[in-house]
Amino acid sequence: MQGFPDRGGTPDLAQLQSTMHAIELACTSIQMHMNPAAAEATILSLSQSRQPYQACKFILENSQVANARFQAASAIRDAAIREWGYLTSDDKINLISFCLGFVMQHANSPEGYVQAKVSSVAAQLLKRGWLDFTTAEKEAFFNQVNQAVSGIHGVDVQYTGINFLESLVSEFSLSTSSAMGLPREFHEECRKSLEMNYLKTFYCWARDAALSVTNRITESDSAIPEVKACTAALRLMVQILNWDFVCNSSGGATSTSIFQVGGRQASDSPKRSECNLVQPGPAWRDILVTSGHIGWLLNLYSALRQKFSCEGYWLDCPIAVSARKLIVQFCSLTGTIFPSDNAQMHEHHLLQLLSGIIQWIDPPDAVSKAIESGKSESEMLDGCRTLLSIATVATPSIFDQLLKSIRPFGTLTLLSTLMGEVVKILMTNNSEEEAWSWEARDILLDAWTALLVPLDRNGGNELLLPEGKNAAANLFALIVEAELKAAAASAFKDDADSDYLQASISAMDERLSSYALIGRAAIDATIPLLSRLFSERFTRLNQGRGIVDLTETLEELYSLLLITGHVIADEGEGETPLVPNAVQTHFSYVVEADKHPVIILFSSIIRFSEQSLDPEMRQSVFSPRLMEALTCFQLLHTLVRQKHICLHIVALDSWHDLANAFANEKSLLLLNTAHQRSLAQTLVRSASGIRNSESANQYVRDLMGHMARYLVELSSKSDFKVVAQRPDIILSVSCLLERLRGASSASEPRTQKAIYELGFSVMNPVLVLLEVYKHESAVIYLLLKFVVAWVDGQISYLEAQETAVVVNFCMSLLQLYSSHNIGKISLSLSSSLLSEAKTEKYKDLRALLQLLSNLCSKDLVDFSSESIDTQGTNISQVVYFGLHIVTPLISLDLLKYPKLCYDYFSLLSHMLEVYPETVAQLDSESFCRVVASLDFGLHHQDTEIIDMCLRSLRALASYHYGETRAGKAGLGSHATGVTDPSGNLQEGIFSRFLHSLLQLLLFEDYSPDLVSSAADALLPLMLCEQGVYQRLANELIERQSIPALKSRLVNALQSLTGTNQLSTTLDRKNYQIFRKNLNKFLIDVRGFLRTM
Amino acid sequence: MSDSEEHHFESKADAGASKTYPQQAGTVRKNGYIVIKGRACKVVEVSTSKTGKHGHAKCHFVGIDIFNGKKYDDIVPSSHNCDIPHVNRTDYQLIDISEDGFVSLLSENGNTKDDLRLPTDDNLLTQIKDGFAEGKDLVVTVMSAMGEEQICALKDIGPK
């Protein structure tokens, strides 16, 4: 590899030229794919040499090879960011003005990417020095830029200036800034400073630049150079409005506006298309709202619209796209920029925009017809997006009113007709190429969701006016029709797209819940509609039995059930959903239960599921089990989540038939395992509807007892070992384990007793099965998952004696599992079988770790009447012991599974943080494993894992420090280090980690997010091992050969421990001081330590 | 459910009685076993066509031959039966490896078994031979199904 001379004095011309040739050669050879590694090394050595600026400037100015210029710019950036700490302030300013001057001079250069690169280097360097430069220094740069942007040096320079501002703004915006090896606070401060002092100015410059060329653009009939500058200006305005404003709350935030300020974007609302709110605050009112700026923008776009037939303009030409984007953004303008005492201003603003864009989407049928016959859909989609933005910032009634002043109907009606058109298109040609109608549907659906999603859980949404309701009802009917048609059409489709279907199931679910919102908005009409459609299909099913093929009808019923489910109930992932407000409040006038429309719909569905229990019906109509599984069990599963429904359900005869069938009928064993589990869970959970606790427990015993007894009998057979391997026995054992798991996971306080007994009775059989099926990994996994679920449901309710029993059982289980698996190597010719075996192991181990975590939770949540200590059970010792058994099974290979790794380290760090005192009692073998794990975790790629290890270190070190200061042993020999049997001194844990943590912080790559937690770990480590720290610091200083840098390092090390009154206590305040000190220390020295 | 299982127990089925058992395709799961094209396979992938839908579902199985590692696949209507191999695994202690490529094994009840060849694959062979040469106490697991036998796992239970 060729190195480049560090700048000693001024390099002579020959030297510069040879460097340039070397870089040019490297660039061309990369392009030709000749020895790219060496070429890359040459280029890298340029950016890594000391002060390569002279050479880089020379290349930029003289080289004919564009790539070489690009690389030179990039080298300037890398070197300057690295050496920033000791560049003189003149050097810094020179570099920036060189870059700026370069782009301005070469404004008409055809190599856009070199220009963009140099421009972004200038922006990055300006940001790097942002907090150090004086205002006057910054002003000098910006004057230059302002002149360029104003256009006095011509269109090319104007374009270049705007581009520079664009890269500057994106550099200062947190989400797009480039890494500089500095803490987050730096970026945050720069961002704040730019927003306060410059952002609005930049916006005005961009606006003026656009204004200055508008006339020329509107007057000419073909594309002119000004279009390029205008497009860039529009783009810059879009980008500035995209800024994440924080200073917007400075206005009167106390009075509540009728417009919701940001409140609509509840984090749980299902959003697919992005709709960012623009909330710049009152300071922006004059430019954005009251200056007639919007009128100009709308006029500009309509002028462009006239030109789409001209050469150089079309619907998707850059300037039109940017203008439309900006218009959409103006619709999302909200917040304190509008005075709270003047609602008209916002309304007027929205109305102006809406009247500007109305022709993009109205009349809907003509628009969709034009698109179908070949017009570009982008304008229509942007129209939909504006509707979405308006829907996001306005209440439904204001949204609806807006259009009334210019059209005979409300905006909701327009929204409904527009979406109706889209749905019709989707219905007629349901092929995948019709991407635009999919996209339009999604955007419009989001608009509906934004309008209709309830703002808070208890207060309902305001009700729509009759016209709006009508619109919603019509649309809903159309949607249902379309869905049914799609369902019927898919009945005989081939299975080719089954993969695709599965992937889109969650998307479909989301879509259905948006449909449901529309349906609920007009619930008077939709519930009867659904009832009618359902009973039509149901009758057809009964009549057509055995006569005609009913596949289509079944498919329609399935789809109808899905829609209905979403309309009448919210989905309740993990939580108990309430009856939706719309359903709850709406039919309050209906007094008799039998006439309540929801109940009518409901009972017809339940009757339908009862039919599936009728064997004859099942034979003739419901072909495979899939139908039952998907409709009934999913439905039942949601039903039992609501307590008051449980009350009714357990009183039903058919429910008892189902429970009976489950307990005794063999045919249900043929169900897919996941359904076995969910059925068991559903049936057990319904016990919460039984009022009397004793009968609830009895119900569970009746339901599950039979299966537990069967397992007990089976496992005690003398020939069980022989027959156990038979596939039919394996199948039924697996089924039973799945069911037990389902039942255990439905554990509730009321049925806890029965489920404890259930698990207790199969403890021994479980151990027998674990032995017998040790080679049958599929069974082992089910078994472990059952135990995990059981312990999870039980542990916090158990009394001391029961806890002891369960803990002992778990430990025997762990030991048995470990004895089967430790040191075991699978031999197979097939690599995929080997990797299957590894995956199985991984899943087992995760289950075991979950088991330990569940045991751990006993110390946090405990409902028992006496302390578990009375039985001598110490949870922390138990879990450490468990970890000791499990850890050897976890190989480095297995830790590559992120979930396993995460589980392992979160359990470990939890233990170390909460029970550091137990660590002192570990024997040296277990302790070594802990240390090795922490060491591994500290060098992991995943920030979260490193963070957990750092927290553990902090906990251990601060525990030890506190104890030893109080004259106790702390971690004892674990901390001081021991001599191992072969006579080598093993380093103590703290000195070892002090060393590796410093190494990490100073020389390795890590995420800046980690610095705070690293500081929190480093401080107690340093306090524990002050002597070691001194030694390490001295070594660091000795290694530095350049005197200037050496003294910098000495100073930095001194202020790390000596400034801001850092003391030797471990309280909150001291930790904070140290974090600050460490941050500063790293900024000071990391740059040169890493590269020298 | 209990009647028929009782019946099975009384029939005292022993390992050699039947090589395969019938089972409904819809109940065969990933990580289970299945016979495809006359070979005992481990199921590594099951997909049911028409996921999330009604219709005559079919199961698509991808299996890997547990002895030679070859991949097979098969499509069976989910309500039909397919053959499930009876896969047995027995642990033996490894006593000796003879020159001619046979191993001698000691079973739990004290019998010896000398009719099993070492695997032919070099990689597997060295794993076994090296462990044995180091003087480790090795337990090997022998997998048998449909008349074939092979060593499938190796476990070190400490030095001799």
TrEMBL record, chain A:
<keyword id="KW-0653">Protein transport</keyword>
<dbReference type="InterPro" id="IPR011989">
    <property type="entry name" value="ARM-like"/>
</dbReference>
<dbReference type="InterPro" id="IPR016024">
    <property type="entry name" value="ARM-type_fold"/>
</dbReference>
<dbReference type="InterPro" id="IPR044189">
    <property type="entry name" value="XPO4/7-like"/>
</dbReference>
<protein>
    <recommendedName>
        <fullName>Exportin-4</fullName>
    </recommendedName>
</protein>
<keyword id="KW-0813">Transport</keyword>
<keyword id="KW-0963">Cytoplasm</keyword>
<comment type="similarity">
    <text>Belongs to the exportin family.</text>
</comment>
<keyword id="KW-0539">Nucleus</keyword>
Automatic annotation (TrEMBL), chain B:
<comment type="similarity">
    <text>Belongs to the eIF-5A family.</text>
</comment>
<dbReference type="InterPro" id="IPR048670">
    <property type="entry name" value="IF5A-like_N"/>
</dbReference>
<dbReference type="InterPro" id="IPR014722">
    <property type="entry name" value="Rib_uL2_dom2"/>
</dbReference>
<feature type="compositionally biased region" description="Basic and acidic residues">
    <location>
        <begin position="1"/>
        <end position="13"/>
    </location>
</feature>
<dbReference type="GO" id="GO:0045901">
    <property type="term" value="P:positive regulation of translational elongation"/>
</dbReference>
<dbReference type="InterPro" id="IPR012340">
    <property type="entry name" value="NA-bd_OB-fold"/>
</dbReference>
<dbReference type="GO" id="GO:0003723">
    <property type="term" value="F:RNA binding"/>
</dbReference>
<dbReference type="InterPro" id="IPR019769">
    <property type="entry name" value="Trans_elong_IF5A_hypusine_site"/>
</dbReference>
<keyword id="KW-0648">Protein biosynthesis</keyword>
<feature type="domain" description="Translation initiation factor 5A C-terminal">
    <location>
        <begin position="86"/>
        <end position="155"/>
    </location>
</feature>
<dbReference type="Pfam" id="PF01287">
    <property type="entry name" value="eIF-5a"/>
</dbReference>
<dbReference type="GO" id="GO:0045905">
    <property type="term" value="P:positive regulation of translational termination"/>
</dbReference>
<dbReference type="InterPro" id="IPR001884">
    <property type="entry name" value="IF5A-like"/>
</dbReference>
<feature type="region of interest" description="Disordered">
    <location>
        <begin position="1"/>
        <end position="22"/>
    </location>
</feature>
<dbReference type="GO" id="GO:0003743">
    <property type="term" value="F:translation initiation factor activity"/>
</dbReference>
<dbReference type="InterPro" id="IPR020189">
    <property type="entry name" value="IF5A_C"/>
</dbReference>
<keyword id="KW-0385">Hypusine</keyword>
<keyword id="KW-0396">Initiation factor</keyword>
<comment type="function">
    <text>Translation factor that promotes translation elongation and termination, particularly upon ribosome stalling at specific amino acid sequence contexts. Binds between the exit (E) and peptidyl (P) site of the ribosome and promotes rescue of stalled ribosome: specifically required for efficient translation of polyproline-containing peptides as well as other motifs that stall the ribosome. Acts as ribosome quality control (RQC) cofactor by joining the RQC complex to facilitate peptidyl transfer during CAT tailing step.</text>
</comment>
<dbReference type="Pfam" id="PF21485">
    <property type="entry name" value="IF5A-like_N"/>
</dbReference>
<dbReference type="InterPro" id="IPR008991">
    <property type="entry name" value="Translation_prot_SH3-like_sf"/>
</dbReference>
<dbReference type="GO" id="GO:0043022">
    <property type="term" value="F:ribosome binding"/>
</dbReference>
